[in-house]
Amino acid sequence: MTTKENLTQNRNQAPRFVNPILLGAGIAFLVISFFVFGVDAPHPDWGKFWMIRPLLITPLAGAMGGAFCAFMDYQRSRGFNRTWAILLSLVVYVIGLWLGIVLGLDGTMWD
What we know:
- The protein has helices at about 5-35, 50-75, 80-105.
- The chain has about 110 residues and is an all-alpha fold.
- α1 (about 5-35) crosses α2 and α2 (about 50-75) packs antiparallel against α3 (about 80-105).
């Protein structure tokens, strides 16, 4: 394999890993935005910038779930059962999203 073929092959694999991460973070951002931007009058004890924490932590958790989905897609291409890979990816993503929401809203809305 020449150097040019090797570089082309590595460049094509990057979007396969980045797209699920961005999709997972985007879905998590939309979910947490529903809760955060729905607050009309925040509690005074929460502080002035209370919404920064959930808007950062929850998409990071969603991105990690997306990374796991990309990893399971890689494992599926190596012979892992497709059905189990999809189910395991969904379960891990939902649990990670739930934990990200809890961790992000801890001390404010999740009290």
